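Collaborator request log, item 7. Partner lab (contact: R.S.) asked for a structural prediction of histidine kinase to inform their binding assays.
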Amino acid sequence: MAETSAGQESKGQALAARLWRNRWLLAAGVVAVFAVYYFAGVSGYALLLALALLAAAAMLPVDAERQSTDAAAAIEASGLQRLSGEYLAAAVADPLIIFDHSAAMVHANAAAFAAFGGLAPGMSLALKFRAPEMQALLDSILSGEVASDAVDYTEKLPVERTYRVSASTVGHATGLYVLVFKDQSETRRIDRMRADFIANASHELRTPLASIAGFIETLRGPARNDPAARDQFLQIMQNQTGRMARLIDDLLSLSRLEMKPYLKPGTEVDLRQTIDSVIDSLGPLAAENGIVVEREFANGRLVVPGDRDELFQVFENLLENACKYGQSGGHVTVSVAAGDDAQQAGFDVTIRDYGPGIAEEHIPRITERFYRVDVENSRTQKGTGLGLSIVKHILTRHNARLSIKSEVGKGAAFTVHLPAR
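Returned to partner:
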């Protein structure tokens, strides 16, 4: 009840305010109505009707849209007046520096201090940023040749970062200018990775293609009537086409993995069954290289969430590498044990060979695309240079990780750490 009375009181106040704002218009209308009544002799009912209509019109909002617009403009103006340049600069995520006509720094936001350090009001930006492109940018802005300009600038220390630097005047005749640094380092890194990937893939395909083209030319010429040479060359050509096919298959696998970076939940994989299938499928390769594969599985249920085909590919790549590059050790051990991470339950699958091992400096880069510890040996073993990169991508999808331990002359151990949930 109290709320109803308050609402009615508010409405009454609004009507009274409107009548007061339109008081002069209302008074003029009343005078006009009485003048018509007096001189034209209209009836009393017509007079009352005219007065009622005039009062209703006076109580309606007058030019409500214009009033609303004016009120919004007033609010915006008062809000902007309360904002200072420091607040606006702090709201910018990129490094921002305001300077005057002598290229002396007036203000810098927190991102600028974090990126460049050693900044202070009054510091000469011409001395802080000595690169020729930055000097040219400051000169062009301060000379008034252009109102805004942009250049690419690379900061070497403490780490190399590339920026797209934009310079422009602040307002009209303020004597102030602003530099905004847009970090392009990640974009440039991705561009370099893409260029390197294309170059490496092209090189890996060009080598067998050149070999096939050369043997075809030889078969059509000097070896045309030489059956022994023809059989030998055809075998080499078949090996080279197989190498290209493996490379294309691995490239397609990487592409598919990158297009679906997240794994659908709900599917479970039996590690015991999956790894047994991998060992059986690579039995001929192990026998060919004189390798004995030993199993060391923990007791109990060895189940993890994941995609069976993808985990099969992980263990297949790792065991195949162990059989190829660790053959001098004579045996390979595949073990499954409970994970040693107290924070997260899971299983560790370790594939260990006893071959020549991997030098320590190669381990951090061994999962990069096309990176090889021994180029000639890798190609002899029909490697594409993409196997461990595929392993890394699949494990990322499974929220898992790969660790590598090795000593030269003592073999290598590749351990897959898989979460149990």
